[in-house]
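Task: encode each sequence below as structure tokens.

Item 1
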Amino acid sequence: MAVRETPPGECPQCWQHANDRSIHRRLRAREDCKPCVDHMVNGCPYLVPKQKAGRR
């Protein structure tokens, strides 16, 4: 799968780990991904830009 740009308002690491299967493919059965566990426990370390509001 080709790497795509992270959409606005999304954490780059969360988005990549959710959408790129090759990242987790190397893990054994029932093995946790350490970066994902760290995100679940400590939250996202990135300042996530918010989506721009559309004009009405």
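Item 2
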Amino acid sequence: MYEMWAEQDPAVSPPAVVWHVVAKDDASASLCGRFLEPSQRVVPPGDADGTQVPDRYCDPCLLTVREALAASGR
């Protein structure tokens, strides 16, 4: 089972939130291999009207999930 992990992405300006995929049984690293620090995890803020700020998703993480699902026949 997997879950999503959001953190600030300082590589873009203005800073944005990027979502990684982590295994629930080991949240120390994302599926793309990035080591994750609990202190870096964020809850993305919404806009004043309640809508979410655009998010980015880690393509290597999502590719790993897609390959795992294809291999399992789902």
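Check on item 2: Strands lie at 2-9, 16-23, 26-30, 56-57. The mean pLDDT is 81.
End of task.
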